[in-house]
């Protein structure tokens, strides 16, 4: 493959779809719940593409801001900007193009959704700086990654009911859990260069914090399922997700980077179990 093309693919994380999937699952939960299992094809397509675009744009702007730090971290030192394969000007062009596409998509929706999307865009730009000034950048990431829940509800209903906020807060705890696992991979490098994370904040209690966040995530979904009147298939999917996540947590007791990274990636299956539960409960 052409070296430059490969660099653009890595810049936009097209070779690592896990982030897009983790941002997409809460959106799918919201669309199915807001439409009682039958979301419109137009909204589904807009949110599928929009989630992909915004996650990609977030990766690009993150690499632009963090390239000096990325050079000092084992996992990130070969990223295109950190390694010099691409310039900041190339990345800026990609970012502007992605944001223009995102703006076109959101202009197809109602005014409330437009205002919310502009707030999300601002937080996307803010997130990379949070790692320098706050011990909990994962909280900001949680807002950004799960804002699609609020956007999906607002685009569907032109309002934000209590169920939207319950799902949003529940999924925020999910992000806190899996991104703390992700931060544990880079913990030693982050300590050396002065970046902050929940993995550093909670130290040896990071897994306790992660487990608590997972528990609040599942409790929120259980409550939401009861409130929405979903049948046993949803709760079966939720139980499968809980068992799968418990198994992953038992595997990371040694806190090794590889174990934490594998547990982070396993959240793809967690989301899949929950979405199947929602899908088949309505079906």
How would you characterize this protein structure?
The chain has 283 residues and is mostly helical. The protein has a single domain, classed as Tetracycline Repressor, domain 2 (Orthogonal Bundle), CATH 1.10.357. The chain is built from 14 helices and no strands. The chain has helices spanning 3-11, 18-34, 41-70, 80-83, 88-106, 111-133, 137-157, 162-185, 187-193, 198-202, 206-228, 232-251, 257-265, 267-282. Helix 2 (18-34) packs antiparallel against helix 3 (41-70), helix 2 runs antiparallel to helix 8 (162-185) and helix 6 runs antiparallel to helix 7. The longest helix is centred in the first third of the chain and has 30 residues, at 41-70. It is globular, with a radius of gyration of 19 Å.
Work out the count of structural domains. 1
Total DSSP E strands? 0
Strand content: under 5%
Biggest sheet features: none
Q: Low-confidence runs (pLDDT<50, min 5 residues)?
A: none
Share of residues in helices = over 70%
CATH architecture: Orthogonal Bundle
> Which class best fits the helix and strand makeup?
mainly alpha
What integer value in Å does the Rg equal?
A: 19 Å
Q: What shape does the CA trace take? A: globular
The first-level CATH class name: Mainly Alpha
Q: Mind telling me the CATH superfamily name?
A: UbiA prenyltransferase
